[in-house]
Amino acid sequence: MTNGLNAMYTIWLREIWRFVRERERIVGMVGQPLLYLLIIGKGISATMGIRGAPAGVDYVTFMYPGIVGMSILFTSIFSAVSVIWDREFGFLKEVLVAPVPRWAVALGKALGGATVTTLQTVILLVLAPFAGIRLTVGGVVEMLALAFLLSLALTSFGLAVASRMTSMQGFQMFMNFLIMPLFFLSGAMFPLTDRVPAWMRALMHVDPLTYGVDALRHALYTGPVLEVMRAAQLVRFDLWTDIAVLAGLSLALSAIGTAAFSRAS
Amino acid sequence: MSAIVEVDQLTRTFGEVTAVDHVSFTVQEGEIFGFLGPNGAGKSTTIQILATLLPPTSGTARLAGFDVRKHAVEVRRQIGIVFQDPSLDSRLTAEENLRFHARLYGVPADVYRRRSEELLAMMGLADRRRSLVATFSGGMKRRLEIARGLLHHPRVLFLDEPTVGLDPQTRAAIWDYVKRLRDETGVTIFMTTHYLDEAEHCDRIAIIDHGRVVALDTPAALKRGLGGDVIYLRGPDLAGLAARLKQEFGLDAEVADGRLVIRTADAASLAPRILAGVGTGVESLEIKQPTLDDVFLSLTGRAIRDEEASPTDSVRAHARMWRNRR
Ligand SMILES: Nc1ncnc2c1ncn2[C@@H]1O[C@H](COP(=O)(O)OP(=O)(O)OP(=O)(O)O)[C@@H](O)[C@H]1O
Ligand SMILES: [Mg+2]
Question: Ligand 1 within 6 A of B312 CB?
């Protein structure tokens, strides 16, 4: 067990070393969501309003938690996919031949991915004022905790998929057919209100990212603004519902991801 | 000496292909044991089974008394391995690769510090310890992998074609090091190669072909098994020369390709006596001692080097080249 924990920590540490080293990756991973926020967000808020939004909440402010969610989604999946690279470049063998249990390797990887994603989120939060978003200290702490939880679920999910994949091409397909819909249906770009067609509403309800984005909105808005947003269904669920769903998912998916990784190698 | 690797009737199939076919052998502790065979012979597959990365189809393999299937983690604790294909993280520095390994194997921090210094110095990498592995040459990467494989004091070190693609100086340096290491620490070395000259460094060699061990002995004994050395003589009157050799030394010499061929156990001492006895009729004398290539040829009917690569092998070799280039 101590052996396993030690191995988990080692695998985790490598993820951090690599994150610190790969500045281009950080720029890319932060740049993409910012681009979305600035171009789509500013473009839409310049010409359109949101039905039922309280005063001071324009489209950019509405979209910002969604963009944080998008960044979490992409960074998590990207972290998990590094397993495919490790296999391709042979490094995975070095890990698999070590006297450590497979579950420790998988969990270390998932926790490493979640940590890296959280660090990435810090950067995005630091940049928030430049997009005209005001954050409170409590909100920031809450958002980071949520980022970690959501990312643990998503990285584990990515790990379960990546364990079965041997090629980057296969992953590209997965990316197009799963990741983008996951993002579009999460309520990041438009709210999950009763006006949305029923079939789409159903899909949005089963998208785990929906609960992540919803929870992030809870963290960003407070007091009367939050109440108005809740009434207009711009924030859809109760915070504890969101957290319960995310925690349940994290547990279930990290178990599945660990099992899939152990079985595949 | 006691047996540290015990392999009994080990077999591994991949669909139709039998990569390892009822192989049995033992390796003694402290030995340098070589696996010699052409591409696709089953060398890497055997190593992967011994390193617990691949389950055998049938048969057993034990390492330091532990069954590779039932006690995988115990076996992994006893071994270090340098894979045939690269397995470093090229985005990390040399030192970080070593530190990662030490942590994974639970090497205490002070032991790690001392030993990594030692190994990096020995491998000539001390001044590059903080460089990214991506900036290393192929030989430097190989040396770093060997250092890493030794970091946790394994009892058995597996080296799968450790010197492929390296220049002669580096190859010689690695061999010097491997031998010194064995002499100083008593680590058992299990290595594969298809360089015949390298196999000569081993204490014992198993010659493997199509998944089967076709011979296993010391390099000298394998060569002796071929009937020893050959002396070739040239001269104006070969038939006359043959008659005189028969008369004076009782030697049976035959004429082939315009030269006289004499088979003997010890050419080095016979040659001067021939020259002293029948020297006037000899224009040139040539001694040929058998090489492992001859051994391989006589055992399998093929030379090890002109083995034609099967399509999968060439694909694999290609993939390897592609990977090495990055
Ligand atoms: N994972 C695999 N799937 C299918 N066939 C395999 C696999 N690994 C090895 N083989 C086959 O098993 C046989 C032995 O391969 P192996 O890698 O052990 O050879 P080798 O002696 O190490 O050769 P080389 O000198 O080229 O490294 C080959 O025919 C190879 O194609
Ligand atoms: Mg091989």
Answer: yes
Q: pLDDT of B219-228, one tens digit each?
A: 888 877 766 7
B320 CB near ligand 1 (under 6 Å): no
The model's pLDDT over B105-125, given as tens digits with 9 standing for 90+, comes to 999 999 999 999 988 988 889
The answer to whether the CB of B45 is under 6 A from ligand 1 is: yes
Give the position, in ligand 1's atom list, of the atom nearest the Cα of B42: 18
Q: Where are the domains of chain A?
A: 2-263
Chain B nearest C-alpha distance from A19 (Å): 10
Nearest ligand to residue B159 Cα: 2
Q: What are the chain A neighbours of B51 within 8 Å (beta carbons)?
A: 97
For chain B, what is the HEC assignment?
A: CCEEEEEEEEEEEECCEEEEEEEEEEEECCCEEEEECCCCCCHHHHHHHHCCCCCCCEEEEEECCEECCCCHHHHHHHEEEECCCCCCCCCCEHHHHHHHHHHHCCCCHHHHHHHHHHHHHHCCCHHHCCCEHHHCCHHHHHHHHHHHHHCCCCCEEEEECCCCCCCHHHHHHHHHHHHHHHHHHCCEEEEEECCHHHHCCCCEEEEEECCEEEEEECHHHHHHCCCCEEEEEECCCHHHHHHHHHHHHCCCEEEECCEEEEEECCHHHHHHHHHHHHHHHCCEEEEECCCHHHHHHHHHCCCCCCCCCCHHHHHHHHHHHHHHHC
Which top CATH class is B3-222+307-324?
Answer: alpha beta
CB contact under 8 A, A17 and B96: yes
Encode pLDDT of B33-56 as tens digits.
999 888 899 999 999 999 999 999
Q: Superfamily assignment of B228-289 in CATH? A: ACT domain (3.30.70.260)
pLDDT greater at residue A21 or residue B29? B29
Looking at all shown ligands, the one closest to residue B53's CA atom is 1
- In chain B, the residue whose alpha carbon lies closest to the alpha carbon of A12 is B100
Model confidence at B320: pLDDT above 60: no
Q: Which residue of chain A comes nearest to B325, CA vs CA?
A: A89
B83: which chain A residues are within 8 Å (Cβ-Cβ)? 90, 93-94
Q: Which residues of chain A have pLDDT under 50?
A: none
**Do B88 and A95 make contact, defined as CB atoms within 8 angstroms?**
no
Residue B151 contacts A, CB cutoff 8 Å: no
Give the pLDDT confidence score for residue B274 in this predicted structure.
Answer: 85
Of B35, B43, B300, B316, the residue with max ligand 1 atoms within 8 A of its CB, to mutate for a pocket test, comes to B43
> Which range in A162-176, B147-161, B186-200 is most confidently predicted, on average pLDDT?
B147-161
ipTM of the complex as predicted: 0.87
